[in-house]
Amino acid sequence: MNVIFMGTPDYAEKILAKLIENKNINIVAVYTQPDKPVGRKKVITSPEVKNLAKSKNITVYQPNRLRDSEVVSELLKIECDYIVVAAYGQILPRAILDHAPCINLHASILPQYRGASPIQQTLLNNDAITGVTAMLMEEGLDTGDILKIDTMNVPKDMMLESLFTSLTKIATLLTIDVLENFEKLIPKKQNDEESSHCKKIIKKDGLVTFNNSSQLYNKYRAFTPWPGIFLESGTKLKKMELVEKSITGESGKILEVNTNNILVSCSVGIVKIYTVQPVSKKEMSVISYINGKRLTIDDTFI
């Protein structure tokens, strides 16, 4: 079968790699976002999807706007049986949706967490179960008919990168399954009344307080490594654990100083902090940090 693939980040690159491995699938074109400046030096960097496609001699398109008439006309000239979309980053216009069945791999159990950050939202809400939904795309945002859902359990201490890796593995296998069994699948309408949406994560989302230990820890899980979690002072909390989640106390109070960690009280709950990163400095032991600040038990951690 001939497939046009659309995607941009690592998640998409892993799915594309699995499609390329399959002898029954021929990737006729890859669409991904334009190269962009990355890091402090603003080095122009290609998406991982582009690098993989180029290494396999697959034609790559990087339109700024997929909706532009010239872009649409060019795509419609490419014969394909399916279009597979995974975190591409642009909305597909009606003409492309009508060109071939467009299958999207979304990292949540739809209609829950439509939108840009479903994996982070799973951790922020401390969900016990998540998954990947294969759906037929339409003009709405993640509103298309569901083809199949594969699920997984989420351990209480699972971090973003680990969950991302697990969901990516599910998505790669689900993509192949759906393509090979597409004619047997019965699309199911989503219940819009059960839907929820999640926004694109921005840097300021990482700002935290010692208000609620569970919420603080879930932000740590969801926002590590980016944007990270940080206090009003700009100090980042780099490694921590949830110790207690119901006892009330004084926000930010240092309760205990140990060999390589400290216990800090929240208004509700307690957390254990191992390492921090002050503004414009490298990550360091929290013990070195509080010694430098001359903080000890009963002081407020800042």
Main features:
26% helix, Rossmann fold, alpha/beta, 7-stranded mixed β-sheet, 5-stranded antiparallel β-sheet, 302 residues, 16 strands, 2 domains, 8 helices, Methionyl-tRNA Fmet Formyltransferase, Chain A, domain 2
What does this structure look like?
- It contains eight helices and 16 strands.
- With about 300 residues, it is α/β, with parallel strands linked by helices.
- The protein has two domains: about 1-200, Rossmann fold; about 205-295, Methionyl-tRNA Fmet Formyltransferase, Chain A, domain 2 (Roll).
- A seven-stranded mixed sheet has the order 5-2-1-6-7-9-10.
- α1 (about 10-20) packs parallel to α2, α1 (about 10-20) packs parallel to α6 (about 160-180) and α5 (about 120-125) runs antiparallel to α7 (about 215-225).
- The chain is elongated, with a radius of gyration of 22 Å.
- The chain starts with a strand and ends in a 9-residue tail after the last helix.
